[in-house]
Amino acid sequence: MNASFQIQLPQDQSIDTSSCNLLLEVSPEYLLTCIINDTDKKFTALEHFRLDSHDPLGSFKMVLFNNRWISKSYNSVKIVYNFPDGLIIPGSLQNEEADKDSLDIIFGDLNEAKPASEYLASWDVHNIYRVPDAYTTLLNTQFVNPRSVHIYSVILKKLAQEKDDLINDHLFVIFFERKLFVAFVKNKRLMLIQTFDYETAEDVNYSLLNICTRFDISCETVDIRISGLLDDQSSVYNEIRKYFLNVRLENRPDNLQYAEGFDEFPQHFFNSVYWSALCE
Where are the domains of the chain? Predict the structure, then answer.
């Protein structure tokens, strides 16, 4: 399977992967792999694969067991799960015995998966989520003791570092393959975190405007910060700017290093991966 995005080492360079970390972002729509030099925290290579919508697990398995970079030995492996079955529960209300029932009520009970929970002290919330057993089994077969985290936890940890500086209402928006992630922070409090499906610019604006209506947010004053796979010349970006006055694309973190190939892509494209590397 060919990568939809690819950043490779120059042909005259080699790399000892045993001194590098492998980061994977796994979702039903795509698989992203990234190699990070552990010595200087430099992003060295990246591949992004769109999975077959008719057989995502089959195409995921094909990449996982046939990709030349994944098959190498690494200092550590980190897996970031970007699956939509996730709920944020206030710390005082979380009940481990009820996690499965809560997920089944919201997302249905056809998913064969064990619930997992991650506590985020900065927000005093639990992120409870599930990943289909078929994916976790394959990944645990391929890697020995990989670390794992859910994408909601990654983003909430990133936002926690900034929340004291957030003055206005903020919508944090990340574009993934056919998915739209939104977190809303009001008065330095987390009000919403949710993933939406989308196909058109109208779908995106409907979701954003609906959030504004629900929480009585002004389109003229709310700050929208965008990351992910969105072209600033696209119809989606132009439509967002028609309705919202304060829109900006997030820069990549300046406390990491990047191989030259990363400069060929907009800085906001792979921010979720960069934040995952910084998330401990």
Answer: 5-82+253-278, 84-129
CATH H-level superfamily of 5-82+253-278:
Protein of unknown function DUF3822, N-terminal domain (3.30.420.250)
> Strands, DSSP E only, in the chain?
5-7, 20-26, 30-37, 42-50, 76-81, 86-90, 115-120, 125-130, 147-150, 170-176, 179-186, 189-197, 223-228, 246-249, 257-258
pTM for the model = 0.93
Q: Tell me: the pLDDT tens digits for 163-221?
A: 778 878 999 999 998 899 999 999 888 999 999 999 999 999 999 999 999 999 999 99
